[in-house]
Amino acid sequence: MVSRVIPVDPFDLVIFGGTGDLARRKILPGLFRRFLAGQMPPSSRIIGAARSDMDAEGYRGMIREAIAEFGGDERDQSDQIEAFLTRLEYVAIDAMGDGGWADLAELMQRDVVRAFYFSVAPSLFGALAERLHVHKIAGPQARIVVEKPFGRDLDTARELNQTLAEHFDESQIYRIDHYLGKETVQNLMAVRFGNMLFEPLWNNHYVDHIQITVAETVGVGGRGSYYDKSGAMRDMVQNHLMQLLCLIAMEPPSRFEADALRDEKLKVIRALEPVAPHHIVRGQYEARGDEPSYREDAENPKSFTESFIAMKCHIANWRWAGVPFYLRTGKKLRARSSEIAVVYKDLGHSIFEGDEARHRNILSIRLQPNEGIDMQVTIKEPGPGGMRLVDVPLDLTFAEALGESGHEISDAYERLIMDVIRGNQTLFMRGDEVEAAWRWTDPLIEGWEARNDVPKLYEPGSSGPEDALMLMHRDGRRWREIKG
Ligand code: NAD
């Protein structure tokens, strides 16, 4: 079965910060794949807008190199790359000044969707929004896309929301969390809400606990001094892990539609209980061989910032009362692996004599590597020898059955950008969600700062500090293995 490509209207997509790392590594190679898939109608264009002084030809050269460096298999299609590059324009622009704005206004086409990707530091959002308005480039139909970090606490997030709201309606603002663009995350909703089988068991009567792990193998080297002001809580938990938790825990929305879904996510965040200090474990990676320690990477010998965090959270509502949600994320861990696991309760009673293994159903949603969903079920081990039970994974992704090879699964960024062009906000965060997430996060951070909490050291290549293992062991549970 060939995957269906849904056409989009013609568009002008302006990428502020079009020469930056994110644009070259993710956005432009992703847009090239959408071009190949036939999702760039003939008059559609991508306009790079950044500080560097160059012309359209120079920009095309830069993006040719970016596709060669960061593209997948499609980077061999040189004719197609050249055809794609003809869709690119460039304007040298100063977000804080007046230079380039008249050129951009003139370049924009009429009667196409206008989208503006703010792939620049958040300190420039206000200046961009204002100039788009003053120069009459972005009217009420225009859309803007903003990147993380969306604030570093409740106050700064509020300020950003207010700044954007001066010139744009909430329905025009697309706050990206690329975790929501992942195929598997969307499939989680399809599996959960498209089958009779799961929803009746999706509660504290049947679920023992939920684990969410986002493990990385890289350290913070290269962006250490930036990361040191943020840490794992701000960089990963407040946004990505929180979004995953919301999708798992939310009530079924009445429709798969932006505000219906976002209302339900918001209710989850608001129902999150404060986390007790002894349910939070923060860590920092040590040095290994000639690899630097976190503090060396961060160029801050006295840093108390966490490169790892594990925590046990509770959601105070009828569905989840008593069900712990264990979250963990960190740098320099054993493998690059992200997974949500819904661990069901043990069977109350086993009828199989001599079967001592503790069988449990586990629904695991893997975001990376090898995106997929499977359900651990218990069956009889085939062959003679009596009733020996064995746990096996039941693949719920059926990638092969649907003819979707791993390579064809589009990247989260390109998928989300196409949603922007279609005007579909379902997989983007609403302003009140982001604020609610900070409202929950802020007191936890303030708490450990006030206590001068020192992160526990952990060995690079491990699963994090020992205390994180204890967080679950104390409850008679264990983390799932981090494996790539
Ligand atoms: P970068 O430093 O590589 O690029 C910044 C871009 O902004 C450049 O194109 C630069 O020309 C432009 N710029 C800077 N000042 C400007 C001005 N006054 N006027 C016009 N243009 C100006 O940054 P990046 O890594 O591409 O990140 C961009 C944004 O995306 C940041 O907010 C970052 O936090 C966020 N982000 C980046 C990544 C990533 O993987 N790089 C991931 C998630 C979020």
UniProtKB/TrEMBL annotation:
<dbReference type="GO" id="GO:0050661">
    <property type="term" value="F:NADP binding"/>
</dbReference>
<feature type="binding site">
    <location>
        <position position="216"/>
    </location>
    <ligand>
        <name>substrate</name>
    </ligand>
</feature>
<dbReference type="Pfam" id="PF00479">
    <property type="entry name" value="G6PD_N"/>
</dbReference>
<dbReference type="InterPro" id="IPR019796">
    <property type="entry name" value="G6P_DH_AS"/>
</dbReference>
<keyword id="KW-0521">NADP</keyword>
<keyword id="KW-0560">Oxidoreductase</keyword>
<dbReference type="InterPro" id="IPR022675">
    <property type="entry name" value="G6P_DH_C"/>
</dbReference>
<comment type="pathway">
    <text>Carbohydrate degradation; pentose phosphate pathway; D-ribulose 5-phosphate from D-glucose 6-phosphate (oxidative stage): step 1/3.</text>
</comment>
<keyword id="KW-0119">Carbohydrate metabolism</keyword>
<comment type="similarity">
    <text>Belongs to the glucose-6-phosphate dehydrogenase family.</text>
</comment>
<feature type="domain" description="Glucose-6-phosphate dehydrogenase NAD-binding">
    <location>
        <begin position="14"/>
        <end position="187"/>
    </location>
</feature>
<feature type="binding site">
    <location>
        <position position="331"/>
    </location>
    <ligand>
        <name>substrate</name>
    </ligand>
</feature>
<dbReference type="GO" id="GO:0004345">
    <property type="term" value="F:glucose-6-phosphate dehydrogenase activity"/>
</dbReference>
<dbReference type="GO" id="GO:0006006">
    <property type="term" value="P:glucose metabolic process"/>
</dbReference>
<protein>
    <recommendedName>
        <fullName>Glucose-6-phosphate 1-dehydrogenase</fullName>
        <ecNumber>1.1.1.49</ecNumber>
    </recommendedName>
</protein>
<dbReference type="GO" id="GO:0009051">
    <property type="term" value="P:pentose-phosphate shunt, oxidative branch"/>
</dbReference>
<dbReference type="InterPro" id="IPR036291">
    <property type="entry name" value="NAD(P)-bd_dom_sf"/>
</dbReference>
<dbReference type="InterPro" id="IPR001282">
    <property type="entry name" value="G6P_DH"/>
</dbReference>
<keyword id="KW-0313">Glucose metabolism</keyword>
<feature type="binding site">
    <location>
        <position position="235"/>
    </location>
    <ligand>
        <name>substrate</name>
    </ligand>
</feature>
<feature type="domain" description="Glucose-6-phosphate dehydrogenase C-terminal">
    <location>
        <begin position="189"/>
        <end position="480"/>
    </location>
</feature>
<feature type="binding site">
    <location>
        <position position="182"/>
    </location>
    <ligand>
        <name>substrate</name>
    </ligand>
</feature>
<dbReference type="InterPro" id="IPR022674">
    <property type="entry name" value="G6P_DH_NAD-bd"/>
</dbReference>
<feature type="binding site">
    <location>
        <begin position="17"/>
        <end position="24"/>
    </location>
    <ligand>
        <name>NADP(+)</name>
    </ligand>
</feature>
<feature type="binding site">
    <location>
        <position position="148"/>
    </location>
    <ligand>
        <name>NADP(+)</name>
    </ligand>
</feature>
<feature type="active site" description="Proton acceptor">
    <location>
        <position position="240"/>
    </location>
</feature>
<dbReference type="GO" id="GO:0005829">
    <property type="term" value="C:cytosol"/>
</dbReference>
<feature type="binding site">
    <location>
        <position position="178"/>
    </location>
    <ligand>
        <name>substrate</name>
    </ligand>
</feature>
<feature type="binding site">
    <location>
        <position position="51"/>
    </location>
    <ligand>
        <name>NADP(+)</name>
    </ligand>
</feature>
<dbReference type="Pfam" id="PF02781">
    <property type="entry name" value="G6PD_C"/>
</dbReference>
<comment type="function">
    <text>Catalyzes the oxidation of glucose 6-phosphate to 6-phosphogluconolactone.</text>
</comment>
